[in-house]
Design a protein that fits this description.
The complex is a heterodimer. By secondary structure, chain A is an alpha/beta fold. Chain A is built from 19 helices and ten strands. In chain B, strands 6-9-10-3-11-12 form a six-stranded mixed β-sheet, with helices on both faces. Chain B has a four-stranded antiparallel β-sheet with strand order 2-1-4-5, with helices on one face. By secondary structure, chain B is α/β, with parallel strands linked by helices. The chains are: A alpha/beta, B alpha/beta.
Chain lengths: ~575, ~600
Amino acid sequence: MNALHFLTPYLRRYFLPVLAGALWLTLTNILGAMLPWLLKVGIDAIASQDAQSLTHAALGLGGVAIVRGGTRLLSRFRFLHSARAVELDLRADLMRGLLAKPFDFFDRHRTGDLLSRFTNDLSNVRMLAGFGVLTMVNSLLVYIVTLVMLLRLSPTLTAIALIPYPFIFLFVKKMSKKMMTLTTASQESLGRVSQAVEETVSGETVVRAFALGGVRIRHFARCNADYLQRNLDLARLRAFIMPVMTIVGPIGALLTLYFGGKMVSSGEFTLGELVAFTAYLAQLVMPTLTLGWVMTLMQRCAASMERLSTVLGGEPATAPAPPVLAPPAIAVHNLNFGYESGPEVLKGIDLTIPAGTVVGIVGPTGSGKSTLLRLLTGLYPPPAGTILIDGVDLSTLDGGEYRRRLAVVPQEGRLFSGSIEENLLYGVPGGDAALRQRVSEEVALSDEIARFPQGYQTKVGEGGVAISGGQRQRVCLGRALARDGGLWLLDDPLSHLDAATARTVWSALRAHLAGRTVLVTSSRVSFLADVDTILLFENGKIVARGTHAELLDSSPLYARLAEQEKLRDEVEEIA
Amino acid sequence: MSGRFHEENSDEISGRHLDFQLFKRFLLAVHPYRRTAWLSLGMLPILALAKLVQPWLVKEAIDRAILPGRLELLGLFALLFFVALAVEGLLMYWQGYQVQLVGQRIMADMRAAAFAKLPRLPASYYEKNPSGRLVTRVTNDVENVGELFGSGIISALGDIVTLTLIIGVMLWMNLQLALVTFVVLPPLFIAGTLFRRNLRAASRQVRSRLAGLNAFVAERIAGIAEVRLFGQERRTLSEFEKLQDDYCQGAIKVINADAALYAVVETLGSIALAAILWYGGGEALRGTTSFGTLVAFIDYAQKFFTPLRDLSAKYSVIQTSNASLERIFELLDQPEEESGTQSVPMSGTLELEGVSFSYNDDSTPVLQGIDLRLAPGETIALVGDSGSGKTTVTRLIMGFHLPQSGTIRFGGIALGDVELSSWRQRIGWVGQEPFLFSGSVRENLDPASRHNDAELAALLQRCGAAAIVERLGGLDAILSERGRNLSSGERQLLCLVRALAGDPQLLILDEATSRLDPESEGVVRRGLQEASSGRAVLLVAHRLATARHADRIVVLRRGRIRESGSHSELLAAGGLYARLWRLQQVEGEEETPTTPSL
C-alpha cells in the first residue's frame, strides 16, 4: 500500500495549513539561499575595500536571519500542527471504526494487538505525516533553490562538487534496505528474549517447584547472546553508515576548495563566490541524509497502514434514544448456532415466549444457556429467520435500535474504571441522585455504599477490581435497572451473592420485572420456582420445559440439579 | 495490557533527571568494559581535532595558497584536508562501534542480571506484582538504558568536547573576533534553559495523557459488549475525543516549544555569522585579520550550532534512561528468597505441626493449626471445596512460604533450615495449570538432562504419554508457546511425566488428573500406581473419586482439618466427607468409581 496515498484524504482536510506551511517553507529556503549570497557580497566587499557594502551585507545577513527565524517557525507550526490534527483525526476514526465493528471482530483480535494499532502504528503514521512530509517538501525545496544558486555561481564547479551525491543517494538507499533486514532480525531476536522472560514469569511456580532457575538462566543466556550478536551486527552497520554520511559534505567542500581555489587564483572566481559556493553545498547535506530516513519511514508506514485499515471504516450506532419498555414476544425456530468454526453450541432450538412472561433457563455448564442469551442481544448475528422479535426477524433489525428494548446483565459483567455512580448510571448518563439511590436500594447495595468513605464516588478500579465480586455483580444489576427495557436478559445474575442476599435481590427484581419479557439463567434452581416457564438445556438442546413443579416430577436431570443444590446448601451450612 | 499503561503513567510522573547515586551505580555496570570505554572516551578529543582541523586547513589554504596564487601548495592542503577527513571517518567508525559495543554489552549484562533475579525472588513477590511489569523491566527498561551510554553520555561528552575545542580554537585564532561571535551565547543559554524547562514538563504531561488515552481504549475494547448493550457508542466516542483534546493541548505545547527552540538556535547561528562578517570583515578591511581566518570562523560558527540544535532530544534520552535505570535497580535490590543451608536427609517423614498461614500478615488465615504426617510409601489425599486451603498446603510443603506459626519438617529438619532447591528437587509436582515451556519435548520433560532416550521412552510408555510425543514428532519436537499445539489433557500428561522424570521422593499432585478424559485418566492412574511405590504421595483432589483409594483422606474446610481417615471410615462417620461424597454422586453419574485405583 502506498503510504502517501493512504494519508492523502487526511492531509487534504488540512490543505490550506499545509499549503501555507509549504509557502512559509519556500520563503524560509529562499531566505536561506540569501545568507551565503550576502556572505559573498560581504567578502567581495572586503576584497574591493568597500566598507559600506560590507556593513550592508552584515546588517542584511542579521536581518535575513531574524526574518528567516520567523518564517521557519511559521512553517514548522503549520506542518506539525497539521500532522497532529491528522493524528487526532486518524485516532478518532480508529475509535469510530472500532465501535462500529461487528462483535465477533473482538473475538478474532486480541486486545493488545488492537491497542498496538492505537500506539505503535499510529505513531509511525504521525511521524510520516509530520516530519516525513516536512522533510520531503523541505528537501525538494532546498534542492531546487540551492541548485539554482550553485549553477548561477559556477556550472563547472557544481558538476565537480556534486560528484559524491548520486553515490551517497544510492548508498543511503542500499543501506536502509540492509538496515531494515538487520533491524527485523534484531526485533525477532528481541521477541525470543521477551518470550523467555514472559514464560519464566508466568511459569514462576513451575520454575520454583522444579528448581529450574539454573536451566532457565542458561536458556535465557542463549537468547540474550543471540540478541547481543544481532544488535552488534546492527551497531556495526550503523557505525559504518555514520561516518560515510558525515564525510559526504566535507568531500564536496574539499573538491570545491581544490578546484574552486584554482579558479580564485586564476581570477575567474572571487573568494566571496568560493565561500558562498561552499556554504550552498553544505545546505545540501542534511536533506540528502534525511531523505534516506524518510524512505525507511515510508516502508515502515506501509505495514502500519495496512494494519490500521482493518480497523478503520464504519460508523457507530447513533445517539441512544430512550429505552423502549414495551415487552416483546419472542419466537425461536429451529436455531442452530456455533461460534466461528467451532462446534455447534445450540442445536435445533424451538421456543415461543409470549410478551411479558418470565422464562428461567437451567442446565449444566456449557449446555448453551449463555449463548442463547447472547444471540438475543443481537451482538452476534443469528442465522436468518431463526429468531423473531414481535414477528420480525432479528437478523434484519438495526442493532442499535433493537438494543433500546434491552436490559442486560452479562455473566461476568465488566465495569469501567470510574466511580460507582458513573457505573450505575452508565446507561443513563444524565441520571440523577434519586435514580442511583433507587437502583442501589433495589439491588441491596445502598447500605454498603453508604459505608464507603467516599460513598457513590468510590472508584471501582479497572474492570471493577477495587470492589468485591458480589458488589460488582450488584452494580451490574443496578446498571441494567437504571437503564431498563422491555426485554430483560439476565445471565446468572446472582452467582456471586450469598444465598440470603441473592433471595432479597431476586424478590426486589421480580417486582420490578412485572410486565417485562424476561429470560434468566441461573445456577440456582430454587430461584426459578416462581417463574412462568423453565427451559432445561443439555448439550445445546432443550431437553425439558415446564414449571418448577412439573419439571421436578418429569425430568430426572432437573430433579438432580435441585437435589445437588440442596446438598450444596447443606454442606455450606455445616462449616 | 492496560495495566501496563497505568503503570507507565505513574512512571512518567516520577521520571526524574540525572541523579548522582544512580549514575555512580551505572558506572559500576560500565566497569567491566572500562578499557574500551576509556579508549572511546579518549578518542573524543582526537575525533574533535580531526574535525576541527579542517576549517583551519581551509584558512591556511586561502591565506597561503589561493590568495598568493601558489597552486602547488593548494594540492598539499587539499591532501592534508583529505587525510583529516579520512582520520575523522575512520575514528568515527571505530569509536562509534566501540561505544555501541560497550552499550550493548552493558544491556546484555543488565538483562542477564535482571533475569537471574527472577527465579530468586520470593513467591510472595509474584503474588503482589503483575507479571507484565516484570517483563517490562527485563526488556523495555533495559532497552532504554542501552541508549544512556551511547546516545546519552558519550554523545553528550562528545558534544561538550567539540564545543569547548571550537571555543578554544576561535579564541586562539582571534580573541576579539571570538568574543564578538560569543555575544550570541548568553541569549542562547537563556533560551535553552527556558525551553528545556517547558519542554520537560510538557512532554511528561503529554506522555501521561497519551497513556491515559490508551488505557481508555484498552478498557473499552475489553468492555465492548457493555458499550454496545447500553447503546453508549456515541458517548464513548465523545469521551474519547475529550481525552484526545486534552492530549492535543499538551502535544501542541511540546511542538511549539520544540519548533521555537529549533528556530531560535538556527537564527542565533545566522546572527553569529552576521557578527563575524561585520566585525571580522572590518578587521580584514583594515588588514588585521586574514581572509582565511574569516572563512574559518564562519565554518567554526556553523559547526558550533549544529550539535546545539538536537540537545533537547539528547536530554530526553537521558531522562527516560534514568527512570528505567531506577526501576531496574529497584528490581535488583528486591530481597531474595531465603533458604537454609542444611542438606536434605536421604529419606524421612514429612510432618506438619500446628501450621498456620496467611498470605498477608493481617488478613484472615488461609490455614489454621494443620497437623499432617506423610511417611514414605504412603498416599494422602487432601480434599475440600475451593478456597479450603488445599493448594496452599502444597505450596508450604514446597517451601514457597514459611508458615507464620507451627513447623514443617522432613526427616526431623525444619524446612526453614533446609537448602531449598535441593529439597524441591526431591519433589515431583503437578499443578492445576499444566504449564509447559516453549522448546523441545525433551527440554520440557527432563530439564536437568538426567535420562537417556531409552529411559525417557520407558517413562513415557508407563505414563501413557508415548503416543502424544510420537504424534508431535519425537523427543526433539518443538512445543509452541505454552504448548498450544497440545490439548490441556495432553499438557497435563506431559507435566506428570516431567514430575516423575526427576525420580522424586515426594509426589505432589494438585488436581493432576482434572483435565484428562476418563480413558487417559485410567492409563495415568495405572502409571501412577506403579510410580508411587516407595514414594510419598500427596494428592489434592476436588473430585472425591480420585481420592477414595488413598491410605488416608484429609478433609479441609476453611483452612482447618475437619475430618481424616480412610474412605470407608469417613463414609461411616457420616460427616462432611460423607455429604460431599453424596453430592458428587448426584452431580455426575460418570464419576462413579469404576476407574482403576491409585
